[in-house]
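Posted in: Protein Modeling Q&A

I'm a second-year student putting together a small comparison for a lab meeting, and my supervisor asked me to include a predicted structure for VWFA domain-containing protein. I've never done this before, so apologies if this is the wrong subforum. The sequence is pasted below exactly as I got it from our records. If anyone can share the structure token output, I'd also love a short note on what stands out.
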Amino acid sequence: MSSEYPPTLPAEYADIEFENNAQRLPLVLCLDTSSSMAGPPIQTLNNALVEWTRELHDDVSLSYSVEVAVVTFGGQGVAAWRGPQPLAPGTPVSPFVPAHMFRPPQLAAAGVTLMTEALELSMQIVAARKAELRASGLQYYRPQICLVTDGIPTDATGHRTDAWRRLVPVLAEEQNARRFRLYAIGVGGITDFGEQVLRAFAPKFNATIQGFPFRELLQMMSASANAEQKGAGDEVFEKIFSQFKTQRPAWES
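Accepted answer (user: helix_wrangler)
Welcome! Here is the predicted structure, written out as tokens:
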């Protein structure tokens, strides 16, 4: 899969304090920042990202193995972020930041819901990062992509589109080949059609949650990352996800 983000590690990360043999776990947060997220939802998301970042830094097992990238779709179109900074399209810099160095972006809500293109970019940057790790002789856990939206896929003019359907067979093949695990989360007042799209994207790991429980969602992603490190079977991930869907954060116990 081609990528406009070549697997190039920025110079300022050249001497980061990773254990040389530590396996990496790429994690992409693919976040809806369209106009429907304006007001309390985007503020809740920003607050949750700040709190999750603190928790991630404090988690010894995750802070030196997880690498975080953020992809947004909204007022800036589709954008990849390296920590708090959006990357210009075509910039030869990887958006992945080691978790112990990650700083969250301050997101604003505007624009349309280019969900299809955002997921495609998420897959591209994951493929590019895996290629870089292989070239460096480093191993990695199965990457995770977490899609969060309160809407339905639109085109650049804001009209509903069926372009998302082209992703369904691609996502099925990629996940069957265990190239990444996709979580597709609907929040707020997502419609029945929006739920249908998420079920098609991630048949096992989709959910529609009342309100905007971003803190619980990010905690679930951390729990999933911990399980990935331990080589857990699919049933463990399904249990973690089921607990999240019912908003019982049993992974904290």
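A couple of things worth pointing out for your meeting: DSSP finds seven helices and eight strands in the chain. The first strand starts at residue 25 and ends at 33.
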